[in-house]
Structures are given as structure tokens and as C-alpha cells.
Amino acid sequence: MRRFTRVTGAPAAVAVVVSALVAAAAVVSLSSVGGATGTATAGRIAGDNRYATAAAVAEATFPGGSTRVVLTSGTNYPDALTGSALAGALRAPILITDPNALSPETAAALAALHAHSIYVVGGPNAVSPTVTAALTGAGYVIAQQIAGTDRYDTAAQVAAAVDGNGGIGLVAGVKTAFVTTGTNFPDALAAGSPAWAFRLPILLTDPSTLTPATQAVLTAHHIGAVIILGGPGAVSAGVEAAINALGVSTLVRFAGANRYDTAAELANFDLAPNPSGFNFNAITPNPGASPGQVVLVTGLAFPDALAAAAYAGFNLAPIILDDPLPPESAAFLANNHYVIARVTAVGGTAAVPDTDLSSAQADVNTSSVTTTTQTTIPVATTPTTNPFNFRR
Fold it and tell me: Which residue range is the domain that position 31 belongs to?
């Protein structure tokens, strides 16, 4: 058992307003929320809608701009969720658009970010030719449009793109990917942060049969380990056995009683004192990052969690879910209060009410927990610097 030391040097409980990225459409408000008496602060990043929220998150993550941007559908979760690892490999934000027309909030965000190269995730039904034509007409370069024959193939092709842009991330010294169901999104919501931070692709499979595209990419790109998200109803024992039969080991399976529990298990693991390298506290923060954060998003929809992936990954922050604040998320906050200096909600008050954000802050600041037990992988060695050199 390891005792954590409380993060020091956290910002005081003051109100900070970052300049709007898109006039009144995407306001980034990192304002303090009252209600607790401890040292952890709370804030929010939100826009008027999902597209404006994604734009606001992009500015909060890359206030100096980003020449590369990952763009995906704001209405289609499979392609959207799998884009997180590619964005991490490119050290880029994720923006979303209406499939049929470039969303004005997104267009304004691209301009404000001084973007140049756009990496599109999803085929013409996710990001239509009308959208890509609008982008090229505005002077942007479509660096790559990643589109498979279906969601499973698209996820596999994203993994291949990650491998071609710096390499699939290593955990315990081997290439590692997440594997989750392709039929629903909840189990994958919290994976965006470590997927971005560690360049771990999110692969999709049929719950009962290992999807051929997923099997092929595991083999072709020499992925040696997987982290399974969801219980046997999401990724069956048969699918896991088929993966293992390829010579790919199961590093760990996160299978909580519900989506909130699964997210909390993964978030707990993000901070776990294990020597595998999968540990936000074991690597050097990115230049300009604000470590010690936890990101809170709604567990009922995917867009805010998708947009949060780059912000959370850049700042080495776990993602937990709200609806309203469930006991699983509250317990995570209390158990890990040693290393939490700020709770940041992504999404408006309809998604994460102020009362829930205040409760989350209070769970950190009023916790009486003195020690915590976390998942440990007793393999490999712990890196002492950022393994992917985000300074490049």
C-alpha cells in the first residue's frame, strides 16, 4: 500500500476566465465553485452546444494554437471515440462537426487555432464530402481521412495511423491497445484520456466474436497486450480467449457494476502506483500542463467525453462520469484526494450541474481517507520522464 502526498502549488480558489474562442459561441469558464472548505478548486469548460464545447476545450488545451487537428462526427460515437489516440499521437485537439455541414463553431475554432492539417476520422456518412470541401475551400489541408468499411475497420485503421505517427504506446514495455464493444459507448467514455496521453488505440469488437478487422490490426501492428473495457456482456470471455490465442495478453479488464464504476476503476488505475508505466503520476507533465486535475463529464452522452480526451490527456487527468454524481465517482474522488488539486467539468450545466460539481469538489476537500489501495501491475519498470516526449 502506498500513501500519496497531496499535490501542492495548486491554484487558489479564484475565478479565471479564459478568452472566448468563438465570440459568444464557445466560452471557456474556469470559475471556482464554492461549497467546500479544502484546497481543491473546481471549474468548468463549456460552450453553448457540443460543437462549441469541443472548441472551448481545444482552446483550453492549446491556448497557443495547434497546426494539426483531428476532426470527427459530433453525432456518431464509434468513430469519435476511437480518434483520441490519434489526437494524442499528433499532439492535437479533437473537434467535432455536423456530418452534413461544417459546424460554424468548428470553423471558427479552426481559424482561432491557426490549424493547417486536418485529420478526419470517419467515412462520408460521418464527415461528408460537403464538410471536407468546405475545409479545403477555406485553405486547410486534409492530411488524412481515415475511413474503414465499418466502425470496426475504422477503429483498426485509426490504430494503424497511430502506429504511423509516432507509434502505438507501450505499457509494460509492449504495444498496448484498449478493446471494447462496438455496440455501445459507455465503457469507453473514460478511456479517451489515457488513450491520448499514452497513444493507446481504442479497438472495437463484436461482443461475442472477435471482429476480423480488430484481429488483423492486433497481429499486423504487433500489439502485445490489451486493456479490456467492460464485462463479459461487452467483451465476452470467448473474445478475450481469441485475443489471447493471438499471443496478445490481457493486461487488465475493467468491468464495473455499471458505466460509472467502470470509469472509476479506470480512473483509479490512471493514478495507480504500479511499475507498468500506465501511471499518470509516474511521468513528467507536458509543458504548460496543469497536473492534479480530474475531469468530470456526463455519463449519458459521448460528445463531451470525446472533447475532454485531449484536455484530460494533455493534463494527465483521469475522466470520471456524472449522472448526477454517482457513488462510484464520489468514492474515487475521496479515495484519491491526495493527488487531486482541481475538478474540471467539461460540458454545460445541463450535462454536469453546478450542484454536482460542488459535490465533487466537496468529496475531495472533506475526505477523511488516509490511505488507498489501487490496482497494481507487477511488471516492467516505471518511466521517470514522459515516454512520448511531448516536447517534440
Answer: 16-350
Crossing angle (nearest 10°) for helices 50-61 and 303-314:
0
**CA gap 215, 199 in Å, rounded:** 19
Question: Is 48 a member of any domain?
Answer: yes
Radius of gyration for the chain, computed over Cα atoms and rounded to the nearest angstrom: 19
Q: How far apart are CA 81 and CA 102, in angstroms?
A: 19
Q: What is the pTM of this model?
A: 0.86
Evaluate whether residue 4 is within a structural domain: no
CA distance 170 to 121: 23
pLDDT digits (tens, 9 = 90+) for 18-73: 223 333 333 344 434 433 346 899 999 999 999 999 999 999 999 999 999 999 99
- Helix, strand, coil share (%) of the chain residues, nearest 5: 35, 20, 45
Beta-strand runs (E) in 167-291? 170-171, 174-181, 202-205, 225-229, 249-254
**How many whole angstroms separate alpha carbon 259 and alpha carbon 162?**
27
Q: Cα–Cα distance between 314 and 193 in angstroms, integer? A: 8
H or E element: which one contains 41?
Answer: strand 41-45
Nearest to 254 by CA among 242, 270, 273: 270
